[in-house]
Amino acid sequence: MNTRPTLPESPAQLQPSSQPLLAELWQQFNTRFPTNKDCLEELCKRACQDGTIKCRHCGSQALDTAFSARVGVCRHCRQPTWLTAGTFFHHIRLPRPWLAAIWLMERGVNISSSQFHKLAGIAYSTAWHIFNKLATVIQSEMGDTASALPSSLFSPVICKRSRDTPARSHPLAEEEHIARSLPAQPGDANFPAHGAARETWAPPSDLAWQPAGTNDSAPKSAVDSPENAQPGSSIDCQPMSAQEEKVYEVLKEQEVHFDAICARTGLPAGEVSSLLTFLELAGHVRRRAGDRYLRTIDDKNAPSQKIGNQRSSGWEELSAAAAALVKNVINFVHEHYQGVSRKYLQNYLSAYWCHIDRGRWYPGSLLEACFRFGPIRNDEIRSCISTALVKILPSQ
Q1: Alpha helices (H) along 296-394
Q2: CB count, 10 Å around CB of 126?
Q3: How far, in Å, CA of 279 to CA of 286, rounded?
Q4: How far apart are CA 264 and CA 216, in angstroms?
C-alpha cells in the first residue's frame, strides 16, 4: 500500500509574502521525508537520541528497532516497547503531517490550520489539533522571562467565535465576561492574581504593566505611560496617519460608539478597529464600557489625564516597548489569520514567538521540546481557555 499522501507540488493558496520560503522548505521536506515510514523513522531516531524512549519494563534505553517500526525490543529483558507511547506523538496515525508542521515552524514559516490541511492533504480538524498542540508546547517553553499582558489589549483581532462564545453574541463577549470577573485594574490594591498567570509570569519591567507608584523601578529610558511622558517622547509625538486623524476627528466633541465611528468615517469595521487600537497605544483615545470611545488628550497633544472616577482601560499603563509589541502582534494576526477567537488567543501569541524568534526556535528545537513535553489529549486542547493575563515574548 502506498503510504505517501497526495500533496500539491507548491503552496499556491498561501499569502504571497510566505509563498517563496514555504515552497522551498516544502520541497526540501518532501525530498528528505517522502513517506510516512521515513517520518516515523526520523521521530523514533530522534527520540532515542534524546533519551525519551526507554523500556517500559526495565528502563533500559538499549532497544533494537527495525526501519519505521513502532515497536522496539529491549536488549536486556527482551520485552517489547512502543516507541511513541507516552510521548508527544502518542497515538498519532500519520506522522508525516506532524513532522511537516514542526519542520515549517522551526524555520519561521507560519500558516493557518485551514491552509495546512490543504497543503498536507489532511482533515482540517487534524491540522487544527496539530497546530494547537504545538502552540501548547511552545507556550511551556516561555519561562519566567515572558511578559504578562491583559488579553483585552488584543481585542482588535478577536473576531471569531468559539464554543465559549455566548449564543447570538459577538466574539468579544468572551472578553467582556472576563473583564466583569476582574473588578480591579493593574495599579489597584485589590488587583487579583489570576491563577498561575499572576504568580508565575512575573512581567519584566520594560515590557509589562507599570502599576501606579512603581515607576521608579522601571528603566529610565522607557516611557511608562502617557501620564508620565514628556513632550517629544516616543508615545505622545508620533504623527497620526490620515486615516487615524479621520477617526480622531469624529471623537472631537464627545464619546462615540464604535458603530457610529464606522458610519461617520465610512471605513470598514476591521480597519476602524485597528486604527482605534493604534490611537489607544499612542494614548490619544480611551475605550469606555459599551464599546464607546473618547479622546484622552486635547488638540495641543498634552499628556492624557484620567477622566472622573473612571478606571483606565489599561493602555496608559503600558510601557513603550509593550505597546510596540502588542501592535506587532496585532499586525501579525491580521496578516496570517485575519482574526482569532479569544479562547485560543494564547496559542496564537505562542505561534508569534516561534515565528519571529529564530535564535530560540532553530531547526530541531521544537521537536526536542515536543519530546520533553509528553502526550496531549485532544480534549485538553478543546477545553483550554486563555487566561485574563496572557504570556508573550518578543524575539531575543
Answers
A1: 320-336, 345-356, 365-373, 378-383
A2: 18
A3: 8
A4: 43
DSSP character string of 325-336: HHHHHHHHHHHH
Q: How far apart are the first and last CA of the chain?
A: 46
The chain-wide mean pLDDT, for the chain, equals 75
Asked whether residue 92 carries a pLDDT value surpassing 80, the answer given is yes
The string of pLDDT tens digits covering residues 271-285 is 888 788 788 777 788
Sheet holding 80-82, edge to edge: 63-64, 71-74, 80-82
Q: Cell 481585542 maps to which residue?
A: 155
Cell, residue 199:
504568580
Q: How far is the CA of 284 from the CAs of 239, 247, 277, 304, 318, in angstroms?
A: 11, 11, 10, 8, 14
Burial 144-171 (b: 16+ CB within 10 A, else e): eebbbbbbbbbbbbbbebbeebeeeeeb
Residue 121's contacts (CB-CB under 8 Å, 6 or more residues apart) are 5, 6, 7, 8
Supply the DSSP symbol for 392.
Answer: E
224-267 pLDDT tens trace = 333 333 333 333 445 778 888 888 888 887 788 888 898 889 88
Q: How many CB atoms lie within 10 A of CB 302?
A: 12
Confidence (pLDDT) at 167: 85
Least confident of 97-111, 117-131, 167-181, 288-302: 288-302
Model confidence at 56, in pLDDT bands (50, 70, 90)? Answer: confident
Q: Domains for the chain: give ranges and CATH numbers.
A: 210-317 (1.10.10.10)
Other Cβ atoms less than 10 A from the Cβ of 197: the count is: 18
- Whole-angstrom CA distances from 381 to 106, 187, 344, 372, 377 are 21, 33, 9, 18, 7
pLDDT band at 205 (very low <50, low <70, confident <90, very high): very low
pTM of the model: 0.66
- Which DSSP symbol is given to 284? S
Q: Which three cell numbers stand for residue 16?
A: 504571497
Evaluate whether 185 touches 191 at the Cβ level (below 8 Å): yes
pLDDT at 310: 35
Rounded (10°) CA dihedral 353, 354, 357, 360: 120
Task: Decide: 62 and 149 in contact? Cβ < 8 Å.
Answer: no
